[in-house]
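Protein folding task:
====================
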Amino acid sequence: MTRLLASVTDTLEAEQALRGGADLIDLKDPARGALGALPCAQIRTIVTRVAGRRPVSATIGDLPADPDLTHDLIRATAATGVDYVKVGLFTDGHRAACLPTIADLAPTCAIVVVLFADRAPDLRDLRPFAAAGCAGVMLDTADKAAGGLLDHLGPDVLRAFVAQTRSLGLLCGLAGALRLADIPALLPLGPDYLGFRGALCHADRRTAGLDPGRLDAVRRALPSAATGGL
């Protein structure tokens, strides 16, 4: 069953997302990029506020292909108590440079790798992510102004991506400027999560606050589900 991932920026939005039925609370700062990171102290405060009512994930930022920096930020983010640490690999070169670091840390925390549909990711073979011990793989978009996920990858490619994650025992998510209107096309693919930010916000602006009415519309378009891991 496909669940709702709602990206939030603070404790107020986290509470709104909980009341609105989000299945996973995802922490990020949309003003700082596709996977902009919140300060670790703020992440820790939100984790305390959520208090185990839902799983919580957090991004480590839009980083360069720097294994040492990636290592330090994964460890720091994991130490806040989140359930999942999300790491963006923006290019194949980024993937080659940082996947060994992810493999080193995967035994100590649950890492979800994020690939970017608008950066031509190689999706033919996801086995290296399973071999590295990743908990899951998500698809997103790096440039939110350049269209949503379905503008870059068609349903057949996305269906194959989801099927491959299933075969490898990886949890999967689809995100990337998703709109309410995208849900009917994406639900039949069977991802574990659909991830939303802009579609949940006032005037479709990622940096605006959550709009309870928009959150409710997205929640109603998805099947109800017991909470679980990403």
